[in-house]
Amino acid sequence: MEMPKPGPNHKKLEAFAGSWSGEETMYPSVWDPKGGVATATTVARVICDGFYVAGDYEQSRGGQVTFRGHSVFGFDEKKGEVVSHWFDSMGMGVDIFRGKWEGQTIALLSSSPMGQHRLTYDFREAGIMRMKMEMSQDGKAWKAMFDGVYQRKN
């Protein structure tokens, strides 16, 4: 039996792969009442023969790591959606985000008891990844949690 091969939708996930670093603007929220500026790095790699991209994220403030996360991006052929599984140092279990590419941007949505989250990635500029996280209780009124601009290091 011939093994399955990744398709073009899996190949598009490679946009996330690489070493990234940048600055984030944290907006006041229940988790961060004052907001502020943080630095962050992500190191992501293609895994499982090209079907997934796994990444490790680390955020720092004042030279101290304040938050860590791990992501696994894949593609759900049946629904035509990118699926991201997110685990972090808050220890709340997995968050599952889903969304569809629109050109070189993607908005992924997740729903949990803490509300709805929208995570947007923008790869329109070569070597730059822009990311924004928003939160909503009703899925209509969205409030920014943070946005960041990251440069590819390799």
CATH architecture: Beta Barrel
Q: Return the domain count.
A: 1
Number of helices: 1
Instruction: Classify the helix fraction into a percent range.
Output: under 10%
Low-confidence stretches: none
> Reading side by side through the largest sheet, how are the strands ordered?
6-5-4-3-2-1-11-10-9-8-7
Shape: globular
CATH class: Mainly Beta
Distance between the termini: 36 Å
Mean of all residue-level pLDDT scores? 95
> The CATH topology is what?
Lipocalin
Structural class: mainly beta
Describe the structure.
This protein has 154 residues and is mainly beta. The protein is 3% helix and 61% strand. The protein has a single domain (8-152), classed as Lipocalin. It contains one helix and eleven strands; from the N terminus they run αβββββββββββ. It has an eleven-stranded antiparallel beta sheet, with no helix packed on it. Strand 4 (64-76) and strand 5 (81-88) form a beta hairpin.
